[in-house]
Amino acid sequence: MKRFFSRKVMVIMLSLLIIVFIAGCSVTPDVPAPDPVPAPEESPGTTDAPEAAETTDTTAPAAEATIEDVRIVTEDYPPYNFINEDGELDGIGYRQVRDGLNQLNLDIEIEVLPWSRAYEMAQQEDNVLIFSMTRTEARENMFKWISPLAQSDVYLYALRDRIGEYDVNSLEDAKNHVISAMQDDFTQETLLAEGFEEGVNLSSTPDMAMGVTQVFRGQTDFFISSSEPSDIAELVRETEYDANDLVVAYNVEEMRSYLYIAASMGTPDHIVQQFRDAIPGVERE
Predict the structure, then answer these.
(1) Which pTM was predicted?
(2) 3-class DSSP assignment, residue 67
(3) 284 by DSSP, 3-state: which?
(4) In whole angstroms, how far apart are CA 68 and each of 40, 64, 72, 101, 267?
């Protein structure tokens, strides 16, 4: 009987354990909820973007240049523009420009500069007028041409006591000699275009006075200039030499041309036209 009771108790306890185990397996454990999946981003352009707020440009527009803003540059190059014995600017070209300024009621100081500097300004800066400058094919589209101021002949000058050594009747003949020419002057540009070579038969100088000096020192045979023989004394005056010791070796007919007053490309057309009206210039043949 006792053994039977003990077996019954064991059956009951085993049954309870099975019931507890089954009940535990049916309980769902607490699992943290997954993070919400973010909504997919809309591709650009699928929604209307908010309109940008209107802005007002408060930057004042650049004022257009007026005729009073013009700078006028030239060089010391007789007889067209030069400093005379009284220290005043004079010359064929200068007088026409001065008369034009008076007609326009303008009080603009004309700056006398080395040619290379004046030439560079007229190429690189706005509202610059330059004279007296030869109008060539190479320069045609580099400037706005205003008016012709003078017709110009070009000469090769040599020492009088050496003129018998030369027989020059053309630029081709001159290639057998050495010529001094001013840097950036049309004579230098033309000689280069005609086949002259720097350091061979061409010596480029910063100004005309240096070319004169080279001839007197025997460093070159000629210097080339559009200064007339009657005005050569003004040209030589800046040196220690005597103009009477110079003579024309050849009148370079290939370079006969006109000297102009011209404006930089950045000069407004209405300003250029006002100067054209005020400086009629000379009639071209």
Answers:
(1) 0.73
(2) helix
(3) coil
(4) 66, 11, 11, 11, 12
What's the one-letter identity of residue 216?
F
Structure tokens at 283: 């009639």
CATH superfamily ID and name for 155-255: Periplasmic binding protein-like II (3.40.190.10)
Give the amino acid at 109.
E
Give 62-120 pLDDT, tens digit per residue: 568 899 999 999 999 999 999 998 999 999 999 999 999 999 999 999 999 999 999 99
- Of the candidates 276, 282, 254, the one whose C-alpha atom is nearest the C-alpha of residue 103 is 276
SS3 content of the chain, % helix, strand, coil (to 5): 35, 20, 45
**Which segments of the chain belong to CATH 3.40.190.10?**
67-151+257-278, 155-255
Residues 6+ apart with CB under 8 A from 204: 181, 182, 183, 188, 198
Tokens of 49: 């973007």
Start-to-end CA span in the chain (Å): 157
Closest CA to 153 of 81, 73, 247, 79: 79
